[in-house]
Design a protein that fits this description.
Keywords: Amino-acid biosynthesis, Aromatic amino acid biosynthesis, Lyase, Phenylalanine biosynthesis. Residues 1-10 have a biased composition (Polar residues). Its EC number is 4.2.1.51. Residues 62-75 have a biased composition (Gly residues). The chain is of the alpha/beta class. The chain has 3 domains: 21-62 and 73-176 and 264-275, 3-Layer(aba) Sandwich (D-Maltodextrin-Binding Protein, domain 2), CATH 3.40.190.10; 179-254, Periplasmic binding protein-like II (D-Maltodextrin-Binding Protein, domain 2); 281-364, 2-Layer Sandwich (Alpha-Beta Plaits), CATH 3.30.70. It is built from 9 helices and 19 strands. It has helices at residues 101-109, 121-129, 149-160, 198-203, 205-211, 221-231, 242-247, 298-309, 341-353; strands at 21-22, 39-40, 46-47, 91-95, 114-118, 135-142, 146-147, 167-175, 179-182, 193-196, 214-217, 236-240, 251-254, 264-271, 275-276, 284-293, 313-321, 324-335, 356-364. Strands 4, 5, 6, 7, 8 and 14 form a 6-stranded mixed β-sheet that branches. Strands 11-10-12-9-13 form a 5-stranded mixed β-sheet. A 4-stranded antiparallel β-sheet has the order 17-18-16-19, with helices on both faces. Strand 4, helix 1 (101-109) and strand 5 (114-118) form a beta-alpha-beta unit. Helix 8 (298-309) runs antiparallel to helix 9 (341-353). The chain is elongated, with a radius of gyration of 21 Å.
Length: 382
């Protein structure tokens, strides 16, 4: 499995780790020598319109549709534009408030885009679905805290619900620096309660525990910072970014309080229409959702084609369907373009053994240089 990494960046010269390497923009800037470069890699192939909400990428049909061929990823005839350019949306949206890490990820990946904050995930999805924004940036997993529950639960709806109809077109890895912030004049000795997003609080557990500080959950880190500023309680502080501290006029009481200094978050970039990389492009990830009957050997048979072809699977997560044990839904990511012969054959085998499947996105993987295949280096960690 590959570890999460993320790149966060402020264009105004914030702290060193709040910098990004944007691969598609062709601008690489090393942040700190002790950290891997972070990268945003939205797909940069020919966009394909999906008037029926991604028929090009979603092989649902009766549950056994093919991913390639005449109705496959790129076989869409006049719907496919023969254009090769970086995905550069003019308007992007994110969940949270100004200064949230999702906001930083938007600025890092799409510095020329206008970033729109939304109060809920549903508003984020609706903004892209209706065309108010061209892309959404949503956190999916953190190196220390694991997957982001709300996004994890949302992905099956994106993949299986035709009325949502979004697709993953890229990923962003943002190095996360968490700071304890409070209004000017406060000291660490005065603080008793710390507000932040649950995932952020989970990343600073040791810091809070060692000082006997109570964790108070908020909807996101920037909202927590704004709340602390507005409430003005002497005992309250927030865990947030340096950008959030600047945005809401707070001071940093303690820098870099995360439990592990190599702390990264991975974000998905979602759009209405697929932006599929060319078949010959290297380092492609495919994200796929599939559903199986709860029966012995079902998962083994469905994924056997990937093992036989030597296709590296980088992610596998499970869901119960409708809270029952009758069927199980899986989200997987693997290396390779779905039109590549060996990948296409592996997906065909999966389709024969699954009741439903849908490709959520095909996009270039990050290039931080920290992923190591176990079969390429003895003892390597994926």
């Amino acid at each position: 499995m590959r570890p999460s990494r993320n790149t966060t960046g402020s264009n105004s010269g914030g702290h060193l780790r709040e910098r990004v390497v944007c691969g598609d923009a062709g601008t690489r800037r090393r942040s700190r020598p002790d950290l891997p470069s972070a990268i945003c890699r939205p797909g940069n192939g020919a966009p394909i319109r999906n008037d029926a909400r991604n028929p090009a990428l979603k092989s649902l049909g009766a549950g056994h549709g093919r991913v390639s061929g005449p109705g496959g990823v790129r076989g869409q005839g006049a719907q496919a534009r023969d254009v090769r350019r970086p995905f550069a949306p003019a308007v992007v949206t994110y969940h949270g408030s100004a200064g949230a890490f999702a906001h930083i990820a938007c600025r890092a990946a799409f510095p020329r885009a206008r970033a729109i904050a939304c109060d809920s995930l549903l508003q984020v999805i609706e903004a892209v679905r209706t065309g108010t924004a061209e892309a959404a940036v949503l956190p999916c997993e953190n190196l220390l805290a694991g997957r982001v529950p709300d996004i994890h639960l949302l992905l099956p709806e994106i993949g299986m619900a035709s009325e949502i109809g979004l697709t993953i077109v890229g990923e962003i890895f943002l190095p996360i620096e968490l700071h304890l912030v409070a209004p000017a004049g406060r000291s660490l000795d005065q603080i008793r309660r710390v507000h932040s997003h649950p995932v952020a609080l989970n990343q600073v557990r040791r810091f809070l525990s060692a000082r006997g500080l109570a964790a108070v959950e908020q909807s996101n880190t920037a909202t927590a910072a704004a709340l602390v500023r507005r409430a003005g309680e002497e005992a309250d502080a927030a865990v947030a970014s340096e950008l959030a501290a600047r945005t809401y006029g707070l001071t940093i009481l303690e820098r870099n309080i995360e439990d592990n200094p190599v702390n990264m978050t991975r974000f998905y970039v979602l759009a209405r229409d697929p932006v599929v990389p060319a078949l010959h492009e290297p380092d492609i990830l495919t994200s796929l959702l599939f559903e199986l009957h709860n029966a012995p050997g079902a998962l083994f048979r469905a994924l056997g084609g990937f093992a036989d072809a030597g296709i590296n699977m980088t992610k596998l997560e499970s869901y119960l369907v409708d809270g029952q044990f009758v069927a199980t839904r899986f989200l997987c990511e693997f290396e390779g373009h779905p039109e590549r012969d060996d990948v296409r054959q592996a997906i065909d085998i999966l389709a024969r053994h699954s009741t439903r499947h849908a490709i959520l996105g095909v996009f270039p993987m990050h290039a931080t240089g920290t992923r190591t295949r176990a079969d390429a280096s003895l003892g390597g960690v994926q």
